[in-house]
Amino acid sequence: MDLKGTIVTADAMNCQKGTAEVIIEGKGDYVLVLKGNQGLLHEEVRAYFDGDCRETLKGKPGCYKKTVEAEHGGVAVREYYITEDTDWFSEKKKWKGLKSFGMVRKKQKIRDGTQEDELRCYICSIEENAEEFERAARRHWGVENKLHWQLDFTFRDDKNTSMAKTGAKKRQIMKKIVLSILSLVKSSYKLSMKKIRYVLSLDYENEIEKMLYFFIFLTNTKWCCFA
Fold it and tell me: Boundaries of each Transposase IS4-like domain copy (predicted)?
């Protein structure tokens, strides 16, 4: 893949040494979420950002950014920290391109007076640039939230009871392909994705033909059919 000039973001499941290597070989950069699946690495990075470290980064140019926004009936305050101080990490050389660690602290005040506090840690190949780090993290959340909501609402993904890992993985791939197609033709139908699926179920042969016409028209793709 040609990833030159691109920052690739991924959730904790894809935070792997192999993923980092592929991205760097493609001349891109990465911002990968760390969670419990990385065990000690997640614990070490989180411990690094505890205490005085965050206060130090606040006073260092390019290492800190704060945003305040209205969100879900309350106010969300996010603090972004990023540092190139990575030499203490004993397995640094095993993560190709590793240049920095990042952390996002989110505090959300709800109208009922309650407060939520969330921490997310990241492993990155980008330099100390809080603006760039914030953009990468926020855009990833936007895609992730939109995708997960549509999978649940349109495909009732939370009701999925697939037990086999391979089967569940293939179902997810197919759902995401279908979701991509539905998102492309949504403006032509002027209906929600869930309602488009319902319309398809009523007259599949005619509707799928119409959908493919919309799809071809919107993507401006030339198709050839061989009988």
Answer: 4-161
